[in-house]
């Protein structure tokens, strides 16, 4: 699964780069402020007791998105940010922090790209890599990588031929085993909803 996802990302990014010089006007870059709202679903710790005891903090982060339009309706979007630090809680009490980097690659359909108001839908894949786990004073950690689906819906409000305002919502599948001293004690389904607002520039 990991090799297949990486291959899809590499081929898609390569196609975008290869066509950039011929059709620069097909590039769209956005900057967004994105609020992350995790679903916070988790298996019982140790396999017994109540579920959903582990949660991850909500957070607002910066995001940069690069899109390439293959046609006026069909585009690919690469969603990027820098590694984000999150607090982790057990029964509402902090047990430490971790960092994650969650790029996504989306295929999009834009319904009315020639209009002032242009809605779109997207579906793609997410790869989240976890690092700098500092849970339970170093005894706990999260699985290193998570691969899952991502879906989005959004709308662009054109201001002129180059600039636009954007509202976007994504649902991303992010899941990880929770390890203590090398033993799996739970599985957390972060599965966040990401609500973004930003501006775009079409070259």
From TrEMBL:
Ranges annotated as spanning the membrane: none
Gene3D superfamilies: 2.40.160.20
Compartmental location: Cell outer membrane
InterPro entries according to UniProt: OMP/PagP_B-barrel, OMPW
Keyword list, A-Z: Signal
Example of a GO cellular component annotation carried by this entry: cell outer membrane
Pfam entry (one): OmpW
Source species, domain of life: Bacteria
Coiled coil start-end: none
Signal peptide: 1-22
GO biological process: transmembrane transport
Keyword presence, tRNA-binding: no
UniProt-listed SUPFAM superfamilies: OMPA-like (SSF56925)
PANTHER family listed in its UniProt record: OUTER MEMBRANE PROTEIN W, PTHR36920
Protein name: Outer membrane beta-barrel protein
